[in-house]
Amino acid sequence: MIYKRAFEFAKSMLSQDRFEHSVSTAEYGYELARRYGVDPDRAYLAGLLHDVAREMPPGSLYLQARKQGIILRREERDCPLLLHGKVAAVIVEKEFGIKDKGVLNAIASHVTGRRHWTKLEQIVYLADKVEPTRTYPGAGIVRELLGQGEFERALLEGLRNAITYAAQSKGWIVDTETVVVFNEIAKTQT
Ligand SMILES: [Fe+2]
Ligand SMILES: [Fe+2]
Question: 2-186: what CATH class?
Fold first, then answer.
């Protein structure tokens, strides 16, 4: 069964802490998907597998991405850790034969968000950022908004947190795709 294999695969690729984060992302994503009208099984699967490339060294991520024909953006060349979602999507497609483009896109876009992303992608993005083991300041507010049915506001806050965190962390850069996505949502909320 695919879920069991995905579970074992994630476990084999990740440290205990990050594996637990992945399971929590899957479970929280499942609940969000149910609440917000998206297929929960697809959110669960994407959540389980979203970080399978997260512990690859930056140099390997870069080489893998090049090898797989991923067109690298400037930010991804400068900070190859940003590629861990896109590389994970390729690994998952090959390892599991997952053909579901929606699931693959959700894995690929969980790091930065993506223009014209689907609700499934947004749910996996948020589940990754605020699953219950996430305790940084700001995570609780996003969970609260999600609990109140305020999906768009939660998404805006989740993106704001991500941009702020990246700006404040040494070794990270602010990804322009995240800024574009943030601005698109921000202008719809006055
Ligand atoms: Fe990640
Ligand atoms: Fe994650």
Answer: mainly alpha
